[in-house]
Amino acid sequence: MTSRRDFMFFTGCALMGAAGVPAAQAQAPRRREVVVNGKRVKTIDVHAHVGFPEAMALMGMKFAPPQLTTTMQDRIKAMDEQGIDMEALTINAYWYGANRDVAEKLIELQNNKLAEIVAKQPDRFVALASVALQHPDLAAQQLEHAVKKLGLRGAGVGGSVAGLELSDPKFHPFWKKAEELGVLVFIHPIGTAELKNRLQGNGGLENTIGNPLETTLALSHLIFEGTLDRFPGLKICAAHGGGYLPSYAPRSDHICLTFPDRCASVPLKKKPTEYLKQLYFDALVFTPEALRHLAAQVGPSQLVLGSDYPFPWDANTVDHIMKTPQLTDAQRVDILGGTAAKLLKLNGG
């Protein structure tokens, strides 16, 4: 049997079953099957988290209290309830301050454990590797090993690395390797420490505003600093609908028209908004209207399902895709899983 210590997952609250009974004690729910136009659809969640206390201990960090963890059984029950067939697991980067030796051990441990989870439940999980991006040459090696030896499907990275933007030339070896391998890189914010004082107070603004803002900054720098021109084959997916960038993207075009000198140091090959068409975004924007707008800005072909599980942001990620009337059935099928299957190279995709 799998021990609780073997598979411990980040969560914001204990998963609950019917009538408030903890999920571990509740009767197993019937697996929800998502159907579009009479056909069963395989749904793939590209934004799902996991963590391992053994790895965190290498940096002197403690895992969440036992009451805030879930087992593999809990997670699969939650997936069944939500209508999610498969999750792509990632770990939020907390190791960017680690020296090379610690980072090497930590990443090896995490990626091996991710591979173990996938091996135990290959029909329910794939995984994106952790990489020590603060040591770019090592990160490139770790990515290649994870993909070619462990069968992982890409990498998860933070929105910045120890104060440096992802567009910094220091990270070119990693981006080059990701492009060479043709694998997905999932960008998830890890916090905007420089704004900590302004984000204090009620409303959890470090998360509510700070996390989407970090993603907005990361993507904007990748565009304006020419990273996406240098590595046009990159497959990048941004968490939380890409932050604020898609909602106000035309301003990125107009900065270059209104103040052309501010776009002169790194000449771009196309308008800033056109780069959104080569990025991917999870659909974690909470409402059909928000999803309609996101699809209008970046194109439905660039969207994938994301839940942020086990953080309980939205248990209806499937439903608001299904309920967005402007989407065609074919577009819904792609957002629910078809596009992710291609990005993750599932079933020959």
Q: How does the SSE layout of this entry go?
A:
Layout: E1 34-36, E2 39-41, E3 44-49, H1 53-57, H2 72-82, E4 86-90, H3 100-120, E5 125-127, H4 136-148, E6 154-158, H5 172-181, E7 184-188, H6 205-208, H7 210-224, H8 227-230, E8 235-238, H9 250-258, E9 280-282, H10 288-298, E10 303-304, H11 317-322, H12 329-343
Parallel strand pairs: 3-4, 4-5, 6-7, 7-8, 8-9, 9-10
Antiparallel strand pairs: 1-2
Helix pairs in contact: 4-5
The tally of strands reads 10
The major β-sheet equals: 5 strands, parallel
Question: Order of strands in the sheet with the most strands?
Answer: 6-7-8-9-10
Q: Catalogue the unreliable spans.
A: 1-8, 10-26
Characterization of the model:
- This protein has 349 residues and is α/β, with parallel strands linked by helices.
- It has a single domain, classed as TIM Barrel, CATH 3.20.20.140.
- It has twelve helices and ten strands.
- A five-stranded parallel β-sheet has the order 6-7-8-9-10. The chain has a three-stranded parallel β-sheet with strand order 3-4-5.
- The protein is globular and about 60 Å long.
Feature tags:
12 helices, 349 residues, 3-stranded parallel β-sheet, 10 strands, alpha/beta, 5-stranded parallel β-sheet, 11% strand, TIM Barrel
What's the quick description here?
The chain has 349 residues and is an alpha/beta fold. It has helices at 53-57, 72-82, 100-120, 136-148, 172-181, 205-208, 210-224, 227-230, 250-258, 288-298, 317-322, 329-343, and strands at 34-36, 39-41, 44-49, 86-90, 125-127, 154-158, 184-188, 235-238, 280-282, 303-304.
